[in-house]
Amino acid sequence: MSGDDDILLRAKGLTKHFGEFTAVDGIDFEVRKGECFGFLGPNGAGKSSTMRMVGCVSPVSGGELRLFDLDPATDGPAIRARLGSCPQRDTLDEELTVQENLWIYGRYFGLSRKEVRTRAAELLDFAQLSERAGDKVEPLSGGMKRRLTIARSLINSPEILLLDEPTTGLDPQARHVLWDRLFRLKRSGVTLVLTTHYMDEAEQLCDRLVVMDHGRIVAEGSPRELIAQHSTREVLELRFDVDDHSRHAEQVGGIGERVEVLPDRLLVYAHDGDRASADVHARGVQPLSSLVRRSTLEDVFLTLTGRTLVD
């Protein structure tokens, strides 16, 4: 059982207002040393607003927030010195070279020229960018720029790395390369806090996560715990040759735990997908295709909110 000494970040009743709009509505969470903690939710759920408060760049409107037992309202500089931040959009200086971006950023933290160059060389090797060290940033691929942004955020050897939508806009290959780098970071002892609206990313990276919707936390746990609590073991996907799949929902009603109607398919939540499929066919229902798969975090979100994550 982890003690309080393992808790690097704690929020109680954390709230953020923009005028009359409430972006974050009284949320509680804790982040422990050495874990990857995620905020999963659609655009506008309050994830980025939460991250900006955690990063000490946006004041707290209400509640309590502590990082390293310090208060962002009075200890912002001391906290930021121990954080790394990878924003949603890359803010690299594209007129400089890859290594120059790291050198300049390192100097902001008061590192000596020698220390900055040594650290930059290590980080470029970690990010698989050593061969591009002397190249200008502008022509780099999106995946390379993202890896450089993460390398830059590590120049001060942070204890917590904040990642806001780290793989948005990347192709599948680049995403998997980045996931590998982040996994290595966590294994080296860096605590990761990330936001994402990609279910597979959260399932791949996060030890624990919270699901946010409309500024509130609607579920919390490990990916496996959330699936066990809010979904069935398996899901049967049925597709029919119609535009409106809702007309077939009544035909399969009562099979499994529940039926979810999506624009292009029906989801039958069942602990035994093969048995559910046999029951569907026994009723004379003939879908164009059927697929039995394991439940995922996407199914959890559909159960909790009744809509997909990407708005």
UniProtKB/TrEMBL annotation:
This is ATP-binding cassette domain-containing protein. Residues 9-239 form the ABC transporter domain. The keyword Transport applies. The keyword Nucleotide-binding applies. Keywords: Antibiotic resistance, ATP-binding, Nucleotide-binding, Transport. It is a peripheral membrane protein. It is found in: Cell membrane. One of its GO terms (molecular function) is ATP binding. Gene3D superfamilies: P-loop containing nucleotide triphosphate hydrolases. It comes from Pedococcus ginsenosidimutans. Belongs to the ABC transporter superfamily.
